[in-house]
Structure formats: structure tokens, C-alpha cells
Amino acid sequence: MNTQHSRRGFLGLAGLSVVTLAACSTSPAAPAAATPKSGGRLRAAFAGGGAKEVLDPHLANLFNEAARAKAVYDKLADLGADVAAQPRLAEKWEPNADLTRWRVTLRQAVFHDGKPVRAQDVLSSYARILDPGKAFRAKASLSLIDLANSRAVDDRTVEFALKRPYVEFPNALAAFGAYIVPEDTQDFTRPVGSGPFRFVSFEPGKSVLLKKNSDYWEGAPYLDELEFIIANEESARTNALLGGQVEYAHDLTPTTARSHASGGKVTIHRSPNSAVQGFAMKLDRAPFDNRDLREALFLLADRPQLVESTLAGSGQVANDLFGKGYQFYAGDIPQRERDLDKAKALIKKAGAEGLTIKLDTSTAAAGMVEAATIFADQAKGSGLTIEVVTGNKDTYWADTLKNGSLSSFRSGAMPIESHIAQRLLTTSTTNTTKWTRPEFDALYQKAVSTSDTQARAAVYGEMQRSLHADGGYLLWGFADWIVGTSPKVGGVATAPANTLDWARFDKVWLG
Amino acid sequence: MISYAARRLALGVGQVLAVVTVVFLLVQALPGDAAVALAGDDPDPARIELIRAAMGLDQPPLRRFGDWLWGLLHLDFGVSLVSGRPVADFLATGLAPTALLAALTLVLLVPLSILVGVAAALREGSPLDRALTSVSVGLHSIPEFALAVVLIAVFGVGLGWVPPTAVGGLTPAVLVLPLLVLLARPICSISRLVRAGMIEALSSDYVRHARRLGIDVRRIRFAHALPNALAPAVQQVARTTDWLLGGVIVVEAVFVIPGLGTVLVDAVASRDLPVVQGLAVVFAVTTVAVNLLADLAAFRLAPRSR
After folding, report:
1. pTM of this structure
2. From the list A4, A50, A240, which residue is nearest B256 (CB)?
């Protein structure tokens, strides 16, 4: 299942630097795939959600729904290679001096029914997402828009009023699920968007067929048709790809990638820095209300070994900070390394010798149970005993938000500001580490009210230093995101999940 | 026999109700509900409350169960909590591939098992019998998923003789591997029963007596011994049908067949109680019906066993 199958989408956006993008984009491609070519149907296999699957882009939750939503719809902005927002349906945006009013100019674009994309469509889409009775995912990101005081200046200009100064407003425009739909759309059985592909047919839990939108504002896609196929098991996606039944298989394991990388039957695409992996310690309760014990855990982790064993080498070591390579990442903070002696001393100082700590984990995300087991092993001989408890995968994230003191953590990429806003403020709704510091909240407010990028970077730097020294996230690695394609597929960018270029099929061709 | 059937039918209705109630209680006992499962990695408590209210999960569980049972009496299976689509739609779309797989399996299973079992029994102790015995004991001990993985790797991916998954539709070529996986174990167990029953029947008094009367050997074997040998096998076929409902879950996942097994796995993972309940009804009714039919068939085949 859902993974699930159950591979439930770990949403949020992964990023990578421009340098890595250039270095890693499309693996050695077969000559047929080297030059763009029009035509053909590409079949793409994703894990799906069966009953959960919907075509309403505002309800998109799983990877396949996100990829489909992106093919049919546009957002005003989306995340680029450095996980910073870049304009899409918005041609440009301009804030006023105190960052509380933003004037957004729309691109000249049309919906699939031929009607132009207007300011009213934008306001209506956001009003739908912000409906107090509804639970759309983008709601939290858009909630600082004061809709009553926002207006359509003309058909192609929207003026947004914000409830407080917010320099990162483009991040909200790029939020997961913040798609623009035609004004007052309620019925999504035959979706009409402004995206590169038009809707043809949908069989829930099975497939979605789209065809090219020749009038797309950014140019028509190469492909004539795009079919999303549901295959929940990773092995089934791999087999379908190997058997020539699909041309694109999303979300493969490092082991599969290693087995088939050199076989010539498939091309493996790796997107670095896609998902961060780690453990979350809760600061509001014993034993991790003790700073020394948190530091001891930081020092117990052998990060290279975790990357090697859990990610089969398909990843990089992390430094307890979110978003390596993204805009505003504090790369100047020295890398933490394992130091067993110092960890032992800290455990002794904290009076925690002989203590057994439960580490909650589950198969809700790939590699979490393995990482927890390896970490428990690394803690042997330190005076602490870490006991791995495998919980229910379907309710894991809600369970670990409330319960326990130490849990496995994984997140897809998103802007560093979004990570802070969602998880590290007193008011954050998914503050798993219970990091509630008034001075940190104040720094965040300062950062998002600072127009100057360099001055803002300095504030984000200060916040990351305090998290690195004192925080509850022990982040040990960044996993590559792995996609397999037929060798004749060209134009696959190695962008992490949910950034603009991830699972983006209008730039892909069949050679 | 009619009163026997009527009694069994009444018992069957009770069994279905019991299964549905137990399934309801079990899903209630699972940690979390559909709202929590849907919220996934964004478990904002306020958001979960909104989802919960939208799904009607703020109603007391007993009331929801009562409403659902009342709907069922009117043949209304309710709507999926998660997608709002009618449960009957899920059952209808999932039923075709699953029923096709199950029906083909059963249709092939009976003649193949009889063939193998009778062939072994007629040459009891011969190299053929010993070979069949070893193969069936070996095959019987391989779990479906392992067999499926090996068959796909060899015939689907390696040799490329048949498609490795059902992506793109259930064509005859696609069905080959799933059917092999589903048939492997039941053929082994049923052919063993046929063999044992046949050997026992062939050495029974009435067969010896028939032989002494000079009746044609083939007639003795196939008109007299075989029906008696089949009675235990028919019961096993019924049990196989129950087992098939489980086996298809594995087979559907491995071969990407969007049938009832896939629907069930998804529905349990997302705590979509109305869908799980609907499937429980379908599975329970099928099981009860098949067992009833098997009992009646065994009764007809071997009246002596009364």
C-alpha cells in the first residue's frame, strides 16, 4: 500500500543545487533519447491510493496525484532547483515597502476550455482552499492572505493583502496543492486546468490518461499522450519497466537502482538531496528536555554508516540541519562527527547511564526501520540503551506528533522557511520536537520581514546555528530520489519530489 | 436435502452478519481512523478534526454501524469515507478481475487435479507417482509471493515470454503467470486427496466385487471409484475458494491487477470502514455460498458419507 504500497507521498519539496543538477541530469542516455522528438504515449507507473485517489488538485496528497495535478494545472509559482520560488502563472510579483501588499501580474494563459486565466480565477481558487470548513493541504501556507482585502485590479493583476509582513510570500504561491482552477469549479470529474496536458479519462486506482495541450503557454509538450498507471509495489513498477509495459517508473529503491544501473535495459535517474532522514527528540519531556542528552545522541550517530547501510550509498551525510544545498542553508556550520567518548561523558553528566529509551519507528517511509535499528546498534556501549519500537505505519505521523520522546523522521524537500514555519515555531501545527522558543519565533518574524536577501540569510543562519547546537532534530542523511525510465526516454530532469522539474512530463520525449 | 439446504442458508445469513460485526469491531480496534490516515505526514490536529467532521466520524461508532446495516438491508453499501464514491462502485470495478482470476483458477483446478491425482493413483508406487509426489510436496511449500517473484523474473523479465505485470489490461498472455501462481498450491493438495481417495476406493470391497463380476476396468475406475474418491476433494476445492480470496491479494499486488484484493488492502490502510465492510460482505457471502454448494455436491457424490 500506500505503500503502501504503501508509499505515501512525502510531500514537501526536495531541492538540489544548480551544480548538482547539471552534474547529475540524465544519466548516460542512449543515442535515441539524445535529441528531442515529438509524439507517442508515455506510460508512467506510480504508487497510488486506490479509494483515496482524487482528481481535485487541491486535495492532492500522494505523489501520483501531485504529478497529475502538475500535468493538468498550474500554480502561480513553483520551486526551482535551489528550492526557492520562481514565477509560473504569475509573470512577476512586487511587494509594497512593508511587505504586506503584493501585486501579482498573471501571464497570458488559457484554460483547456479556451477561457483565459484571470485574476478572478486566482482569487476564487484561493478562496476555495481557505474555506474554514475544509482541510485542504495548502490552507496553512495561504492562511496569511487577507482575502477580504485582496482584489482583482484587472483581469491579469491580483493585489493580495497579507495579515502581516511576509517576504517569502512566493513560497506560499508555490505551496503544495495551491493550483489555479477556473472560477467556482466544484466538480473535478473532468478537470479543466491551464497545464501542459488535457484530461481524457480516469479509472480510480488504475489509470489516468491525458493528451497534450498544444496551446500551453510555455510551449506544447513533446508527448502526444501521457498515461499515469498505478502500481503500488516497487517490484511491480520495476518489472513493468523491465518488461516494456511502462516507460517511466517512479520511486525505486537504491537496491533496484544498483541492480539495474549498468544492465542497459533501464536508465536510472537520481535526484540528490531529495528527502532528509533522521530522528526527532521531544524537548518538552524527559529525557530529552536535558540538552546534554540531546548532544550525546548527536555525537552517537555514525552518519556515514547510516547513509551507507540504509540508503545503500544513494545519499549524502546530513549535519542535523534541513535543506542542504537549498537557498539560505547554513553550509558554514562544521559537520558533526561521531564521538563516543564525549557522548559517554555527556550521558554520565546527564545522569542517564543505564537508561533505556524507546525509539518509535514504522514503515511509513522507506528506510526508517532500518535506520532506527542501525542507530540502536551504534548506541551500544554508550551507557544508553535504545529500544526500537515499530508502530503502525498508517497513523505514524499523527502518533509521533503527540507520543513518545524519540521517533524516526523523514521529510521531503521544501524551502527552509517552510520547514521552520511548519515545524519549529511555537504556533507550528506539526512541531514534533516541541521546539518552542520565543527568541527563535522572534528571529523568524524578523527574517520574514527583512527585504534584503543577505540580511535575511544572516538571520536564517543564526536560527540554524541555534537549531544545530540545541535542537531536537538529529538529521543524518539526505536520500536520493530514484526514478527509472526506458533508455529511449529523454529530457528527464533529476529534480527532487515536488519541485517544478520533478515528474514533469511536458519536457520529456520518447526517442 | 431441501430442508438441509434451507437450514444451511439461514446459518449462512447469521455467519455473514457475524463476520461483518467482527470486521467492524476489528477496524474500530485498529489505531487511528480514516482522518488520521488521510492526513498522513501532515498531521495538523485542527486539520484532522476538519477531515473527521467532513467524513462524519464525529458520529458515535454504534450509530454509524447501525446506519450502515440499515442501508445494507436496502442493498445500499454506503459511500467511501475517503473519496465519497459509492462503495458499490469499488466492488463493481474490483469484482471483474478478481472473479475472472478465481473462476479461471477453479475451472482449471478441478480437471488438472483429477488428472494428476488419478494418474498417480493408477500407478501407485511407480516412478511417475513418486515424481508427482515430490513435485507437489515441493511446490506446496513455496509461498505464492516467492513463486510469483521467481516466475516473473524468469518468464516475464528474463525470457520475455509473457508480460511481467497486468499493467495495460488483463489479456490472456497476462493471465498466464498469475494463474500458475494461484494454481500451484491447490493442485498439489487436491491431487494428493484425489490420489489417496482413488487408491482407497480401488482397494475397497465394492470395487473388488465389481471386478469379480467382470465389469470393464475403466468403468469401475471412472464411474464407481472416482466419484467416491472425489468427495473429500470437493470439500478441499471449497476450502481452496476461501483460500483464493486471500491468495488474490498477494497475486493482485505483485502483478498489478486492480481487483478486490487491492481494494481491500487500500481500504484497510486508509481505514475506509464502509469499503472494508462492503468487501467483508462480499467475501463472507462468497465463502458461505461456496461451502454450502460444496457440501451439497459432496452429499450428491457420495451419499454413503451421510
Report:
1. 0.85
2. A240
